[in-house]
Amino acid sequence: MSIGEIVALLRGGIYQIIIIAAPILLTALVIGLVVAILQSATQIQEQTLTFVPKVIAILLVLALLGGWMFTMLGNYTVALFRMIPAMAGIP
With 80 as the cut, is the pLDDT of residue 79 above it? Predict the structure, then answer.
């Protein structure tokens, strides 16, 4: 296995991580921003106020996109397992 193949393998893994984590992270970012704007507009500085909406939104995103995330991860894992014989030099 060459260095180029290893780099491609790592690049594919990082790409999968970014694609799978992006919906959850973007949801948390947007909800946090909206709550922060509301807190600054109303001058309510409660630290736990951002926690509950973020948790609810993240759980909703997981409920909606969890199947897609699992399918993407499963397909990548199957592709990795199929590459094992080639990595070991078995034809």
Answer: yes
